[in-house]
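Supplementary Text 2. Reproducibility record for the structural model of the 194-residue chain.

All settings were left at their defaults, and a single model was retained for analysis rather than an ensemble. We include the record here because the model underlies the residue-level annotations in Supplementary Table 4.
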Amino acid sequence: MLKRLLLVLSMLAFAAPAGAVTIGDDGLHKQDWFSITFRDIAEDIEAANEEDKRLVLVFEQRGCIYCRKMHEELLTDPEVRDYIKANFKVVQYNMFGDEEVTDLDGEALTEKTAARKWGYVFTPTIVFLPEQAPEGGSVAQAAVVTMPGAFGKSTFLHMFQWVREKGYETGEHFQKYHARKLEEGRAAGENATD
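Retained model, structure tokens:
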């Protein structure tokens, strides 16, 4: 009896590893720290600003292997997760979803028509918005940078850091910033390679 109990407990431990990510009814991977909003972009930018954070939209789709990688390998990494949670308000979008979205120009769309309007075709696509909502225009026009796809930990984290530090305003291209951060990490004895 004790052997069976131990076997069941060990199976449960392997079935749901620590930091396991859940999948919602929409088929998207979920993080309990992502924000649930009414998807009014101007209001979301303002709400993020009130929290001294930046708004980030993450477009995903059901069955996306790169989205799974992002959730299971990057967003569960304590260094990455804690940095993003402290500095960004993240709202998840379903590239083929039907929830209503209000663009910065006031147009009401569904998630899928917003993705088409803004030109997002890859998942995940991570969209970084400015600190202040601009008058009119679209999310695609207002975005300070858009990151299509999932990358390695260093590239992923450095993009969030570059946006938080407003690298897009300093003239230091992200690739130069990333190379500098990797070199600084190597000099400090870190094993950063991507």
